[in-house]
Amino acid sequence: MTPVTYDIDQVSLPAFLAEVRRRVPRGTPLVSGVEERDPFGAMITRIGCASNTMEHRVLARLLWGVIEESATETTFHVTEIAARSPAVLLLLSAFIDDYWSGIYDRAAIRSALLINEISTTTTGTQTTLG
């Protein structure tokens, strides 16, 4: 019999999103009004400005994970949440709220990711929304 190992650090996309929302600091504005009104645009800008960093990879994986049909198969490390700044957690939470409210749809997110050449690899990122 082969022993089964579990990586307790791995969580699904829905669990990742729930944990991000749980960890968001409350009561203190950490992002600008523009970022708060358009968290998706702010995330795209941050990815472009911080290409090839852990923040870029996590944000890009999150956005691609949200639009993939098999989103429940996308996994993240819990440490990817813990390593994010309060401002990034706030942006993620605002994006999650807007996405679940229907403000952003999969096609619009996919289009912006493709236009800006944002992938889950570390190359080919631009900063404009097109």
Describe the structure.
With 130 residues, the protein is mainly alpha-helical. It has one domain (10-24, 32-115). 55% of the residues lie in helices and 5% in strands. The protein is built from seven helices and two strands; from the N terminus they run βααααβααα. It has a two-stranded antiparallel sheet. It is globular. Residues 1-6 and 122-130 have low confidence and may be disordered.
Q: Per DSSP, what share of the residues sits in E-state strands of 2 or more residues?
A: under 5%
Amount of helix: 40-55%
Total number of beta strands: 2
Mean pLDDT: 75
Our count of helices gives: 7
In the predicted model, the low-confidence regions spanning at least 5 consecutive residues are 1-6, 122-130
Strand order of the largest sheet: 1-2
Class inferred from helices and paired strands: mainly alpha
What's the main sheet like? 2 strands, antiparallel
- Overall radius of gyration: 15 Å
- Tell me the domain tally: 1
What distance lies between the first and last C-alpha atoms, to the nearest angstrom?
55 Å
Choose one word for the global shape. Answer: globular
Secondary-structure element pattern, one letter each? EHHHHEHHH
